[in-house]
Amino acid sequence: MRVLLIEDDQRLSRLVKRVLEEERYPVDVAADGDIGLELALRGAHDVAIIDWMLPGRDGPAICRAIRSAHLPTAILMLTARGQLEDRVTGLDSGADDYLTKPFAFEELLARVRALSRRFIVTSGDGWELRQGDLVLDLRAHVGRRGDHVLDLTNTEWNLLECLMRHPGQALTREQILDHVWSYESDVQPSMVDVYISYLRRKLNVPGCPDPIQTVRGIGYRLEAANV
Q: At a CB cut-off of 8 Å and minimum separation 6, what does 174 contact?
């Protein structure tokens, strides 16, 4: 797993790099937002650790650019901003997690490990999610079931991606909400049911079983045996 660190505090950057490398993570470092984004858009990193305040492009702008490029990179935002509205801004820009300065390196490592588990992919080249005849091409942003190309909205894509990253696991509606709708507090759990219905229609291919199983009292599961 390769990590990109974008941090202009040279002392902190050296310390974080050393801690990560002691855990055997290869680390690339940038001290400027524009250079950091250039490295990020190469798509070579599994996790990006990005400071909020940077010379050139700031952290939230980098996050938005990474997400616009449909890269599967997990993003941990570092920030000295502790206010709720600032954390929400960072998450809404595309960050998957945030860590407020000052922080313990043990917590930083724990969050990096958690992100690496969440965003692990199942294909050898790291650019596809594949379960049975379902494929999500993360580079081209194209989904397929067998030879059938799936016409998915962004929300449907995120929902299918969530299920495919946890094959055989029963996910609660709340877990799916956190992954697909992030921290949009006005979205209700019933919205999951609505979009599961939409997604099932998109995945309905003649002669193929429904890959999404309803788990009564819990939520939904992608049944790998059915795809």
A: 189
**Mean pLDDT in order along the chain per 10 residues (227 residues):** 90 94 89 94 87 92 90 86 67 85 91 73 62 84 90 89 84 82 68 94 86 93 72
Domain annotation covers residue 25: yes
d(CA 151, CA 205): 13
Alpha-carbon dihedral angle through residues 60, 92, 98, 3, given to the nearest 10 degrees: -60
Residue type, 179: H
| Three-state secondary structure call for residue 154 | helix
Q: Any idea how long the chain is?
A: 227
Whether the Cβ atoms of residue 84 and residue 36 lie closer than 8 Å to each other: no
The dihedral formed by the CA atoms of 30, 47, 142 and 224, expressed in degrees to the nearest 10 = 170
The CATH number covering residue 64 comes to 3.40.50.2300
Measured distance CA(47)–CA(24) in Å, rounded: 14
Does residue 11 lie in a domain region?
Answer: yes
Encoded tokens for 13: 């950057």
- Give the dihedral of Cα atoms 151, 221, 176, 189; nearest 10 deg: 100
Amino acid identity, position 105: F
Alpha helices (H) along the chain: 10-22, 33-40, 59-68, 84-92, 105-118, 154-164, 173-180, 190-203
